[in-house]
Specification:
Family: Belongs to the short-chain dehydrogenases/reductases (SDR) family.
CATH class of the largest domain: Alpha Beta
Distance between the termini: 39 Å
Number of strands: 7
Largest sheet: 7 strands, parallel
Number of domains: 2
Order of helices and strands: EHEHEHEHEHEHHHEH
EC number: 1.1.1.47
GO molecular function: glucose 1-dehydrogenase [NAD(P)+] activity
Helix content: 40-55%
Protein name: Glucose 1-dehydrogenase
Keywords: Oxidoreductase
Strand order of the largest sheet: 3-2-1-4-5-6-7
């Protein structure tokens, strides 16, 4: 087991499933102290159980929170600092898929819900964590979860695409702003990764056969397959680590070549 995160305190939002869970397990095995945040305590408990299987001595706290609530975001930041004393890294990952529909049929309420979680939640997390890191005075690393849908158009997902394009903008802007403070801000842009959220999207395409819809969906990908959460976690860990000290304000596709093809 490597220890490149020994003594480091890292927050992960959306830590109760999918990319957040896989990244939590990866970081725990490398020595990180983790504050896991999710709307679902059940999901958080399952993540902690998986961590205990691979890193029994890992220091982990869980915080149930709605990332679109400023009070909740301040609370998970405060609890992290209270327990661990500082924040060294932040995987700003929580998100939802939203409804799939033509823009003209996408209601304002549906749009607002997706943007509240996927963009406002990312902004609030950055706002609060950057303030702590800046006050600490010794740098830090933030990784935001954008999407292939944040660097190109995706059909029938206006709210999701708008929010993820916003995440890309926030990432680049804050990376430039905070570079002189030693704080790096990057984003990952996952493509088709098989997670509960993506499975929900496939159910919207075919409620009776989401796996069949998934197989048809990935035929447009050069790899002809979905990615796995652990393949994202390895990149997240790299970007949060000191192995990536000259990578800043970058948006890194992890999509099997999907964004290069279209």
């Amino acid at each position: 087991m490597t220890t490149r995160f020994a003594g480091k305190s890292i927050i992960i939002t959306g830590g109760g499933s999918g990319l957040g869970r896989a990244s939590a397990v990866r970081l725990a095995t490398e020595g990180a102290k983790l504050a896991l945040v999710d709307i679902s305590q059940e999901g958080l408990d399952a993540t902690v159980a998986e961590i205990r299987e691979q890193a029994p001595d890992a220091e982990v706290i869980t915080v149930t929170a709605d990332v679109s609530s400023e009070a909740d975001v301040q609370r998970y930041v405060d609890e992290t600092v209270s327990v661990f004393g500082r924040i060294d890294g932040f995987f700003n990952n929580a998100g939802i898929e939203g409804k799939q529909n033509l823009t003209e049929n996408f209601t304002a309420d549906e749009f607002d819900k997706v943007v509240a979680i996927n963009l406002r939640g990312v902004f609030l997390g950055m706002e609060k964590v950057l303030a702590v890191m800046n006050a600490q005075g010794d740098g830090g690393s933030i990784v935001n979860t954008a999407s292939v849908g944040g660097i190109r158009g995706v059909g029938n997902q206006s709210g999701y695409a708008a929010a993820k394009h916003g995440v890309v903008g926030l990432t680049r802007n804050s990376g430039v702003e905070y570079a002189e403070m030693g704080i790096r801000v990057n984003a990952i842009a996952p493509g088709a990764i098989w997670t509960p959220m993506v499975e929900g999207s496939m159910k919207q395409l075919s409620a009776d056969d989401p796996r069949g819809a998934a197989q048809q969906f990935v035929q447009g990908n050069p790899t002809k397959r979905f990615g796995e959460p652990h393949e994202i976690a390895s990149v997240v860990a790299f970007l949060l680590s000191d192995d990536a000290t000259y990578i800043n304000a970058a948006v890194i596709p992890i999509d099997g070549g999907q964004s290069a093809k279209y």
